[in-house]
Specification:
Layout lengths: L21 E7 L5 E7 L5 H14 L4 H5 L5 H6 L5 H25 L1
Antiparallel strand pairs: 1-2
Length: about 110
């Protein structure tokens, strides 16, 4: 993660389908917003690291409506249609986990 706080390395925090060892953590912020963090433990997981940075910066502390508008196809839009099926699935799961965390945080305040 970008800061000194560690992302827990638990099975339930693991991003499903990711070829790299990726873990996800979210925390609720004020006004139904969320902060998301990823840990990519594979030093060769460049696309996963890039997606983690995009999502951490693009989702954290952002209005829930804007997060909901992120397309599920974000990985393909960023990295192109040439992504392998496995890599596309893992990156897609990273996007969906961030969107679900934002939706859940918003619903708990509504």
């Amino acid at each position: 993660p970008a800061d000194e706080q560690e992302v827990p390395r638990r099975d339930e925090a693991k991003v499903a389908g990711c070829e790299s060892e990726v873990f996800f953590h979210s925390e609720k912020m004020p006004e139904g917003r969320v902060r998301v963090r990823y840990a990519v433990d594979n030093p060769q997981g460049i696309s996963a690291m890039a997606m983690a940075k995009v999502l951490e910066d693009g989702v954290s502390n952002v209005e829930p409506e804007r997060v909901a508008a992120i397309p599920d196809s974000l990985a393909e839009e960023l990295f192109g249609q040439e992504l392998s099926m496995g890599k596309g699935m893992g990156l897609g799961h990273m996007v969906r986990m961030a969107k679900e965390a934002a939706r859940d945080a918003h619903e708990r305040t509504s």
